[in-house]
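User: Quick one: structure for sequence A, then sequence B.

Assistant: Sequence A:
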Amino acid sequence: MKNLNRWVKSLILHNEYIDILRVKWVKRVVIHRAFQWAVIVPNLFVFWFLITAGFVGSPVGNMNISITFVWMLWWFALIAILVPFLARGWCTICPLPIFGEWLQRKSMIKKTNYQKPLGLNLNWPGRFRNIWLQNIGFLSLASFSVLLVSRPIVTSLVLGGLFIISTVLMLFYSKRAFCRYVCPVGGFIGLFSMFSSIELRVKDRQLCKKHITKECIRGSDISYGCPWFEYPGNMDRNAYCGLCFECVKACPFDNIRLNARGFGRDLLVSKGKGLDEAWKVFIMLSLAGVYVAVMQGPWGWLRDWANVFYSPPYGFALTGLNNYIFYLAIVWGLSLAIVPALFYVTAAISKYFSESKHSVKDIFTGFSYELVPLALMAWIAFSIPIIQVNWSYILNTISDPFGWGWNLLGTKNISWNPIFPGLIPYEQLIILLIGLYYSIKTGYKLAAQYFDRNVVLRGFLPQLVFIVIASSTFAWLFLG
């Protein structure tokens, strides 16, 4: 307890790290060959149960466990707890790639002696070694958001489809190419995990440089090596580390640590990264606003537009499909064009004010990371009423998962009763202010990297205006 108090005090006061792997039982657990199997298999059964429920259970969303568990409980836990505090911890237990990985390795647990993995083991195409496919995939799913969160069969088709796609791709391409380059969920988890309070890093980079066999990549007698195409020796961001701990198992020098740290540190070392990540920021920021307006706003007609199968008896469009096309134009236009264009103007003004030698493109890309905290907090604020208002549906479907009238645990008849609904706007405002604080803090530190010391504030001013306007827009959407 004394050591824990000392570590926490150092972390808060001195911005230091706490190596969680120094706790012996934690280290023993994660280096055990059965660790991932033990955390994935229960999740695998849960997911296939949810998929089955979507096909055979009630078509009413709040009476089917596939909707209440995936889009209420899982989504809230993922965006509000797992990502901020465990980075890509969801990837540690995600069942989507497990069938393909077991086939590749020809083993479920034990490290096999086979020299060649099952399948073609092709290299992922160079032109797609980015997250553009994840960006388009997430936007495509977001285009059917109303159906996805209200119709169990749609959720089951999507989840089942992701299982199939991941398995097939892993029989063609090496390692976890699906997770790194295709998975639509992995894209935004990777982005937001850079804000997380945890990281996997090496202790001594010089030791990595001197050691030529690189078991952390190639594998060892007890490890397959990193399946995420990462080299721990030069890794300085969480974006593509799936926390599988294969590198911890493989390293012969015990040179890897799992650090608890302050929030948002990776956002300051993302300089020079690609436009794919910048556009992921704009997509997540834009979609947060769209989702709040559609699902929690007072504009019923907008929600009708978002439903491709709904034909309203009013409006200027002749059919529901026409309205849905307008909705798609809003979603894709905001995410891919309007918000990025406004931010590009901000970057151009920052360059003009600071007289920076950096190009507008470099400023545009680099400063996009300042929006990550705000976007993440906007999603968390959006997710709060999902739990506080709908918690009873989760308990109802635990006892009656298929909506067949069961009452297995005695929670079927718990009545709908939101938890302190009057506090929700204030909670959302507080969370937004946290995002505003970290975005301003990150933006100013980025300005210090890009601009000369005497013009840092002047160069950051346009960025500050953009952040404040974006925050105010979210506050208006939440508070009305």
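Sequence B:
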Amino acid sequence: MSNERPTLLLVDDDPLITDTLSYFLNRDFEVVLAGSRIEALARARQLPRPPSAALVDLGLPPTPHRPDEGFALVTELLALAPAMSIVILSGQNDETNARHARALGAADFIAKPAAPENLRRILRELLTSQVPPATGATDLMGHSPPMEKLRTQLRQYADSPFPVLIEGESGSGKELAAAALHALSVRAGKPYLALNCAAISPNLVEPTLFGHAKGAFTGAISSRAGYFEEAAEGTLFLDEIGELPLELQPKLLRVLENGQYQRVGETQQRVSHARVIAATNRDLKREMREGRFRADLYHRLSVFTVTVPPLRDRGADRFVLLDHFRHLYAEQSRRTAFSLTPEAETAWERYPFPGNVRELRNIVIRLMAKHDGKPIELAELKDELDTETATMSSPTPQSARRRDDRELIDLALADLRDAAHFSLDVTLGRWEWAYINAAQQLTHGNISQAAKLLGINRTTLYNRIEVLGRAQDDGAARIET
């Protein structure tokens, strides 16, 4: 680590814990405190740059006895800063929670009470293991057919001036694809700027992108260029484009259509020559249908669209990445790379890595710390794998889906024949409520993961729970009267 202290975000609603750990860790870190998920995100976005690491309690308000707020925060912090090292510090010492937190992208899970000196050591090791920033096409590892297809598309689209939309799951490596597009293009020697739209407060997105005049708003003590101006004739990468505020989307559309924009507080027209690349792990078509993303902006951004494949679809690439990361971290930490026994190799080959490359990398870091130079047995590897979530997210075979459809039709036939007064709305409501409850049970109350499991947006799930809850209350009220 450099002489400048890295920033550590410490999130816990117990003042005794935050005060104690802040006192012990302040020597090595610039500690920022937060007592809830919302406060933690606000603090992280207010910083000049995202924290290097975070210590996160799972049980946070308003549900301190459940892990869903902590799980959600892990996902949101990694959307804000994919390279952030997150350590879960929790009194909920449940191995299932630990595995799930790691699959979401947490680097480690430590049960309370934890010795401050041990925490300091773990955090220092994690920061020395952080992956260097992406530099180009050589960072896209693996030779599976999906990766070869991705490389072909990147080469085809690299020199075009039109936007590219990169889609893919969290942790799959979308930022690497963006860097590769720039490195393969004629713009390679020109600026490459990246802005994570989820990493800054919504009211700061416009001046950050377009710049501002002196006095344009409180704190604007001088004029400043924005990312479009600083990118010049290079590349501007807009990560998490689905988080772009709706009211700002027309201004981005205007830049994409004719290059024109204005600094905040100015009337002078400026022209951008930067090439725009955007990335998202959201379903923008669904966001568009639900009114959260403009259709015209979506179609302008997706002139070219590429998809970074999830690790589960990349076959033997998981072994290529295993070799890369274990030798990289062995060199960085001056340790000997571990090996896998044949049984452990089989488990590695079959595991679908729901957290993608980020999860694989974190598993390697933990194994390197625990098993320096040793062969790792199957039981030791299984301790690191989130097998429950992986099983939930495994795709259903086509034959099984056809069989399930037939069974559902048979059930519907029986219901319609036997019911004197059948109501489709009531029946669908009961099924929807049952699936929502099942998803919450399987994900231990994590709304974000439950929404992903159900194939809907998190906000939509909250709305459905509220609507169904009201419907049940109305039904109960009618019964009482």
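The chain has 21 helices and 14 strands. Residues 458-480 form the longest helix (23 residues).

User: Thanks, that's what I needed.
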